[in-house]
Design a protein that fits this description.
TPR-like_helical_dom_sf; 11 helices; 256 residues; mainly alpha; 77% helix; Serine Threonine Protein Phosphatase 5, Tetratricopeptide repeat
Length: 256
C-alpha cells in the first residue's frame, strides 16, 4: 500500500509539473501572438502609407506632364493665331483721309518685334526656374520641419527620398518625416515612420532617436507599457547614444 501511495503521489506531482509548463507555454504563446498581431498591423499600415506615397508621386508626375502639354499647346496656338501676323502692319498703313508724310511708315519697325516676343508662359517653359534636388531637398525639408512647418517639410523630404533613394541621408530623411507627423500630433503615423528607421537601419545613429520618439508617442497616446518597451530597447541596443540619458529619465518617470 505504501508503495502504491508513493507511485500515485509521484504521478500527481508529474502531472502538476506538466500542467505548469503548459500554462507557461500558453502564456508565452499568447504574448507572442499579441506581439505578432501588433507587428502585422503596423506593417500593414506602413505598406498602406507606401502605396499612398507612390500614388501621390504618380499623380504629381501626371500633373507635370499635363502642365508641359498645356504650355506646348499654348505656344502652338500663339504661332498659328493670324491676329499676331497682321497686328503690326495695320498700324503702319495710313488712312486715305490722313495727311501723312512719306516717312510715316517708319514707326512700324519697333512694333514688329512685339509680334514675335515670347510670352511669359513660353519663357517659363524654355528656361524654368532652378529647383532643389538631392541634398538640397533634404536640407530644405529638414529646415522646414525644424521650423514647425511639418507639411511643407514633409513634401520636400518625400521628394528627396524618391529622387535619391540610395543616399546616405535616407535614414535621416525618414526620421524627419516622422518628426513632421509628431509635430502634427499624428502619433500613430509617426510611430510607423520611426519604426521604418529602426527596421531598415537598426545600426544607424538615427535608430536610437527613432526608438526614443516611439516611446514619447506611446506616452502621449496613454500607453506607458508600450513606451517602456521601446525605451528599454533603446537602452539595450544603444546604451551610449545621445538620447539614452533622456530615455533613462523618462523610463524612471514611467516607473519602468
Amino acid at each position: 500500500m505504501r508503495k502504491s501511495g508513493i507511485v500515485i503521489a509521484l504521478c500527481v506531482l508529474s502531472l502538476s509539473g506538466c500542467a505548469g509548463k503548459m500554462d507557461a507555454q500558453r502564456g508565452l504563446s499568447e504574448e507572442w501572438r499579441l506581439r505578432s498581431l501588433e507587428e502585422n498591423f503596423l506593417n500593414f499600415k506602413e505598406s498602406q502609407r507606401e502605396q499612398e506615397e507612390r500614388s501621390r508621386d504618380q499623380q504629381r508626375k501626371l500633373q507635370d506632364r499635363m502642365r508641359v502639354l498645356e504650355e506646348s499647346l499654348a505656344r502652338l496656338q500663339e504661332r498659328q493665331d493670324p491676329g499676331h501676323a497682321v497686328a503690326a502692319p495695320s498700324s503702319a498703313v495710313p488712312s486715305p483721309s490722313a495727311s501723312v508724310s512719306p516717312a510715316a511708315p517708319a514707326p512700324a519697325s519697333p512694333a514688329a518685334p512685339s509680334a514675335i516676343k515670347p510670352s511669359s508662359a513660353q519663357q517659363s517653359f524654355v528656361s524654368p526656374p532652378p529647383a532643389y534636388s538631392g541634398k538640397g531637398l533634404y536640407d530644405q525639408g529638414m529646415t522646414l520641419v525644424r521650423a514647425e512647418k511639418g507639411e511643407e517639410g514633409r513634401a520636400l523630404l518625400e521628394k528627396f527620398l524618391a529622387t535619391d533613394p540610395k543616399s546616405a541621408l535616407v535614414p535621416n530623411g525618414i526620421y524627419w518625416i516622422g518628426e513632421s507627423y509628431y509635430l502634427e500630433k499624428n502619433y500613430p503615423q509617426a510611430i510607423l515612420t520611426f519604426k521604418e528607421v529602426t527596421r531598415r537601419f537598426p545600426k544607424h545613429h538615427k535608430a536610437a532617436a527613432a526608438l526614443y520618439k516611439i516611446g514619447l508617442c506611446y506616452q502621449m497616446m496613454g500607453e506607458p507599457e508600450n513606451a517602456t518597451l521601446y525605451l528599454r530597447a533603446l537602452l539595450k541596443d544603444h546604451p551610449k547614444s545621445e538620447p539614452a540619458p533622456a530615455a533613462r529619465k523618462l523610463l524612471t518617470e514611467l516607473g519602468g
